[in-house]
Amino acid sequence: FDPRHYLGTHCFGFPRTGPHRLRFLLESVKDLRETLKRKGSTLVVRKGKPEDVVCDLIIQLGSVSTVAFHEEVREILRW
């Protein structure tokens, strides 16, 4: 969970993730973790800036050969 997603936006100060979306995300992550656990796997959940958390996780695991990610698309509103 990236703390920056819970701050206000640069345009209007509205939160990027409001309480209803946060509840949905938490319930979804919990459900995914439980599903993976039933299948003999697990889900690693961390809080922090992804660029820091992923680096720390790679160091912790030690045997990572590939990391895949996507960049968030940011829509620019022009009036």
Description of the molecule:
It holds the Pfam family DNA_photolyase. It comes from Furnarius figulus. InterPro entries: Crypto/Photolyase_N_sf, Cryptochrome/DNA_photolyase_1, DNA_photolyase_N, Rossmann-like_a/b/a_fold. Keywords: Chromophore. This is CRYD protein. With 79 residues, the chain is an all-alpha fold. It has a single domain, classed as Rossmann fold. It is 41% helix and 0% strand. The chain contains two helices and no strands. The two termini are 31 Å apart.
Could you estimate the helical fraction of the residues in percent? 40-55%
Counting structural domains, the number is: 1
> What is the name of the CATH superfamily?
HUPs
Instruction: Please give the oligomerization state of what you see.
Output: single chain
Overall pLDDT level: 84
First-to-last CA distance: 31 Å
- Following the backbone from N to C, one meets helices and strands in this order, namely HH
Beta-strand content: under 5%
Main beta-sheet strand count, sense and barrel state = none
User: Number of helix segments?
Assistant: 2
Q: Fill in the CATH topology.
A: Rossmann fold
CATH class: Alpha Beta
- What is the global morphology? extended
Task: Label the structural class.
Answer: mainly alpha
Rg, alpha carbons: 16 Å
Q: How many strand segments?
A: 0
Pfam family, one: DNA_photolyase
InterPro entries: Crypto/Photolyase_N_sf, Cryptochrome/DNA_photolyase_1, DNA_photolyase_N, Rossmann-like_a/b/a_fold
GO molecular function: damaged DNA binding; deoxyribodipyrimidine photo-lyase activity; FAD binding
Keywords: Chromophore
